[in-house]
Amino acid sequence: MIRDICYYSRHHGNTRKVLQSMNDTGDIDLIDVTASQAVRLGDYDCIGFASGIYYGKFHNGVLHFAQQHLPQGKPVFFVYTYGGAKGGGAKAMEEIAQAKGCPVLGEFSCKGYDTFGPFRLVGGIAKGHPNPRDLEKARTFYRELENRNHCI
Fold first, then answer.
1. Of 74, 79, 88, which is closest to residue 6 (Cα–Cα)?
2. Which of 15, 68, 117, 136 might form a disulfide with 9, Cβ 3.0–4.6 angstroms?
3. In sequence order, which residues have a C-beta less than 8 Å from that of residue 72 and are 6 or more positions away?
4. CA-CA-CA-CA torsion for 126, 23, 92, 53, nearest 10 degrees?
5. By residue range, what is the domain housing residue 21?
6. In 10 A of CB 140, how many CB atoms?
7. How many domains does the chain have?
8. What is the sign, positive or negative, of the torsion defined by CA atoms of 69, 26, 21, 101?
9. Model confidence over 44-55: pLDDT tens digits?
10. What is the pTM of this model?
């Protein structure tokens, strides 16, 4: 099966670390939404979207990319990291998927080291995350998707 994860990961690379741990269990194409705009997601059987949580939601670059490029009816899943609180987490992504008739297979989230905005003043929060336990949980999530669904 052909699978892809479109992501945004900056600052400390928390989300990318999680995706790399998932990729240890399978063959995933990782597409950085800031670097690759000429992609045909219709060629993939299953599409993941991943981001850190910024002010309670996925990064705007991922949201915009999904609105523009997500084909109708493709199965999707979501992965995200957060420093303080999840906020709405994947809510905006779920709304995009619903509007395009895409079934949501699941979501994975974990804490990630965060020095964004005011957290920089206190040396950051969620230090040491994602940690080895978080990464193992990410691999388990992905393996469960593989076992449960035909698209992965």
1. 79
2. 15
3. 100, 101, 102
4. 20
5. 3-148
6. 13
7. 1
8. positive
9. 889 999 999 888
10. 0.89
